[in-house]
Amino acid sequence: MAQELRFSPTVTLLTVGRVWDAALAEALKPLGLTTRKYGLLGHIRGTPGISFSELARRSRITVQSAHTAVAAFAAAGLVEDATAHAGSASSLRVTAAGERLLADAGARVAELDARMTEEHPGLVDALRADFDATVRRAAFS
Hints:
The protein is mainly alpha-helical. The protein has six helices and two strands. It has one domain (31-140): Arc Repressor Mutant, subunit A, CATH 1.10.10.
């Protein structure tokens, strides 16, 4: 006899997250981006002058991994380090080419957002309400 399925918000959210992460990865792949690279570029754009240490902290990766990723971005012309010399703090910025890539990626994210909203309106409403509550709490703490 089959066991009755028990609802778990944790497992359900993780499952939905993995499904949509795979969809995002597929959408970003033609641009040469992964979900992690998209996030790293977004952090650099969102905080011009960000250090490698702060980038690593926000991305939950090691500083060494941040250096490796940024070196690849710089080689591709997507990021520049205004103070790139030994012994000085870095000041990372997204280049015009990086901005164009992020705009293309953002359009793909918007398409996925629209699809998710159409397919799962209740989930999107719940996520929006939780996001808004989190932002309000952060603003008053």
